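Researcher: Quick test of sequence recovery. Tokens follow.
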């Protein structure tokens, strides 16, 4: 897959490839598989040995499942045994919304697959496509020729130093991306701290009635979910309001149990279930956009863009934009000018396509009580199938949040909320003013920092050039 050439100042060899991918989970393997199928020589490096777990809520809406199909990985993922979730259920403030999922490329179901199996299946797909996947390899440096990235230096699985030169270095190495740091792009140009923390655990599922349902409950300021997954397990996640300070031993377990107690219908869903393993946590969550392209480098997946897990969009976007990046650059890897244009256009596309769901996700991550307008939305959706379908479609990326908040629909929701608060309309009016201000802020952000042309990385941030 790669060609070695002698390196004058080293007893080892410098390899040549068309592209090197740092990180071989969802984004990295999707990129590597697509490049390999296009006939390109691609090496993917990962510090883990697979199968390997990682912190993730790992729900795939139909759009995410469709990406697995496009990657030819769906059969391998299906063999892991996660049930098809064909029903969506959301409840809040005494109102419950039940709906089916929209079809994406003929797929009308959701999957919840633990990352150890999911990532390994996608990695095996990339390897079968012809990508050279190397595990237990840690990248230590980027190689530069002036301001252009031309490769990586890394330690291999035996701890020996090695180097690969490539037309494109793809950093698919997550939120703490080494490539982003070494490229001077680690600090986001747009970010929004979450109002929620995240705690989750697996349970041995005792229910047969709910094994086909992805369920979410909101009670007060708390949000909780129950997603049946592979091996007869259930992923139950809670997102209470964020608390400051580092977690001490036992805090995650206590906060998780306390949140479950505050969400009685989720506790009822878990009745008869046995918790398996420890509670896992994610705190100090920040959604962001980083500069994700430059001469000779690009950042798909969480390395370049991350959204709060409250809407479970990360895996779909990792697969989707990893594939799109590979499709964009595969024909032009031999032409630096066209390559730079392709990665820049890919980045602009991701920003344009993700900014609306980014704003919507941040709204759901506020960590506050359901507002009067949110309660009215739930109330209306219980009897309005189209409204319920729009809501479910937003998660699946087949509908846009703008379709939910049209002027006519907002007027009806406001009128309904005022009727139900006719004794004291002030909370509704305050909520309406808040929503107007939030919408104006989102519009301004979309027209400025998220207009689709991210600011350049300062030239000095890439460090000393080494040919």
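Model:
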């Amino acid at each position: 897959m790669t060609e070695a050439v002698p390196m004058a100042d080293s007893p080892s060899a410098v390899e040549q490839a068309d592209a090197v991918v740092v990180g071989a989970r969802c984004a990295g393997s999707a990129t590597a598989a697509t490049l390999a199928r296009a006939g390109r020589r691609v090496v993917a490096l990962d510090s883990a040995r697979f199968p390997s777990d990682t912190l993730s809520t790992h729900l795939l809406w139909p759009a995410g499942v469709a990406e697995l199909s496009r990657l030819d990985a769906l059969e391998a993922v299906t063999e892991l045994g996660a049930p098809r979730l064909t029903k969506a259920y959301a409840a809040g403030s005494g109102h419950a919304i039940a709906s089916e999922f929209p079809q994406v490329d003929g797929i009308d179901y959701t999957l919840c697959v633990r990352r150890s199996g999911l990532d390994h299946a996608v990695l095996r797909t990339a390897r079968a496509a012809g990508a050279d996947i190397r595990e237990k390899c840690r990248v230590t440096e980027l190689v530069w020729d002036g301001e252009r990235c031309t490769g990586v230096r890394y330690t291999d699985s035996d701890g020996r130093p090695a180097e690969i030169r490539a037309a494109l270095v793809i950093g698919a190495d997550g939120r703490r991306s080494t490539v982003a740091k070494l490229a001077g792009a680690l600090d986001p140009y747009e970010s929004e701290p979450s109002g929620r923390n995240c705690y989750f655990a697996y349970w041995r599922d005792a229910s047969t009635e709910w094994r086909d349902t992805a369920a979410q409950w909101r009670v007060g300021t708390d949000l909780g979910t129950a997603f049946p997954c592979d091996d007869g397990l259930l992923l139950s996640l809670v997102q209470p309001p964020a608390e400051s300070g580092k977690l001490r031993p036992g805090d995650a377990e206590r906060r998780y149990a306390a949140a479950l107690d505050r969400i009685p219908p989720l506790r009822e869903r878990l009745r008869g279930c046995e918790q398996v393993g420890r509670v896992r946590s994610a705190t100090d969550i920040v959604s962001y956009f980083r500069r994700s392209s430059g001469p000779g480098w690009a950042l798909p997946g969480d390395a370049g863009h991350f959204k709060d897990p409250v809407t479970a969009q990360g895996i779909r976007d990792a697969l989707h934009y990893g594939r799109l990046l590979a499709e964009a650059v595969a024909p032009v890897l031999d032409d630096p000018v066209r390559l730079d244009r392709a990665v820049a256009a890919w980045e602009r596309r991701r920003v344009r396509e993700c900014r609306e769901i980014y704003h919507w996700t941040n709204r759901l991550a506020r960590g506050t009580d359901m507002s009067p307008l949110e309660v009215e939305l739930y109330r209306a959706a219980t009897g309005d199938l189209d409204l319920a379908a729009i809501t479910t479609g937003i998660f699946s990326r087949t509908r846009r949040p703008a379709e939910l908040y049209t002027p006519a629909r907002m007027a009806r929701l406001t009128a309904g909320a005022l009727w139900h608060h006719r004794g004291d309309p002030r909370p509704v009016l305050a909520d309406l003013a808040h929503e107007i201000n939030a919408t104006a802020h989102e519009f301004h952000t979309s027209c400025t920092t998220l207009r689709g042309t991210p600011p350049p990385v300062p030239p000095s941030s890439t460090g000393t050039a080494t040919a």
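The first strand starts at residue 3 and ends at 6.
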